[in-house]
Amino acid sequence: MPDLSAEAIDRMTPGELVTLVENLDPQDAALPDVDIDAVARLIDPAELQDDEFVRLIAGMQRLAGASVDVTKMGPQTFARMIDRASKDQLEQVLVHPELRDLILGEIFRRMQAHLRVEKAAKVDAVVHWRFSGGTGDEGFDRYETIISGGTCTVNRAMTNDARVTITMPPQDFLRLITTNASAPVLFMTGKLKIRGDLAFAAGMLGLFDLPTP
After folding, report:
1. Nearest in space to 173 (alpha carbons), one of 100, 124, 123
2. What is the pLDDT of residue 35?
3. 0.85 exceeded by the pTM?
4. How far apart are alpha carbons 82 and 180 in whole angstroms?
5. CB neighbours (10 Å) of residue 193?
6. Contact in structure between 12 and 2 (CB atoms under 8 Å)
7. What DSSP state is assigned to residue 165?
8. Are strands 151-155 and 164-168 parallel, antiparallel or unpaired?
9. Domain around 14
10. One domain for residues 34 and 103
11. How many C-alpha atoms does 126 have within 13 Å on its Cβ side?
12. Tens digit of each residue's pLDDT (9 = 90 or more) over 122-154
């Protein structure tokens, strides 16, 4: 078992940290003590080769079903990772269905926690999200968010008629929800497509506390 103390982790280079995450044994009894947020804070994607970034996310995906709680990565840490990752790095990760599911699933899982309850208290809306390059119907990965009574529920099945349907590449979605991209710019360049209530869609992100790098 490698030395997982804070002091040892602080001495590692980003590449060594990637190798550490990649080689951790999911069955090791010491894994619950690993501070995954501290590890991620020390890794700058800009200092990694594209394959190293893929290996990092793959390592986290492998640990997600073990005793390391990858959901404990803080929102600011996650936003910084997306901010520092290159377009090629994000695209290479998102072509892997299991890694794509990990990242998108974690974002939607956190939506309830980041909902501004006071702003959403009187909102009643169903939003359908379609991400291109997926494995679902017509080549899209789909998520449904239901905002009602100050809560946000997420489904993979489309259970209700949508007030608005949003279609976009997943890498642009990652940049959008970590405030690394502008919705108007994405819309004007055709990367963000909206069907339905445009006025609601324009203000929808304001219902959430978006993390900043």
Report:
1. 100
2. 75
3. no
4. 8
5. 13
6. no
7. E
8. unpaired
9. 6-111
10. yes
11. 12
12. 999 999 999 999 988 899 999 999 999 999 999
